[in-house]
Amino acid sequence: MANSSTVTDATGQDVGSDNAQWGNVAADRLRSIVERIERLEEERKALGSDIKDIYSEAKSAGFDVKVLRQLISIRKKEPAEVEEQETLLDVYRHALGM
Prior knowledge:
Layout: E1 6-8, E2 14-17, H1 18-22, H2 27-60, H3 65-76, H4 79-95
Antiparallel strand pairs: 1-2
């Protein structure tokens, strides 16, 4: 039995068989990649929910969530980059008389 089916385009017209249209696509490898991405997307969604819960916990404890987000952003940066940004902020504040 042949493992080739007819493929149609968006208009429903026949555009050839699977094998002729797609060549040597390794279906098992492609399926594996897609499934791994899907699992990771689900994990990311779950992690996002966990992070949201932690921010809610922090807010309930009296912490300013906006400041926490800034702090986390700063901690991700290199010290030299943080120092440069703080220096520029000070220069701009001074220029505005703040």
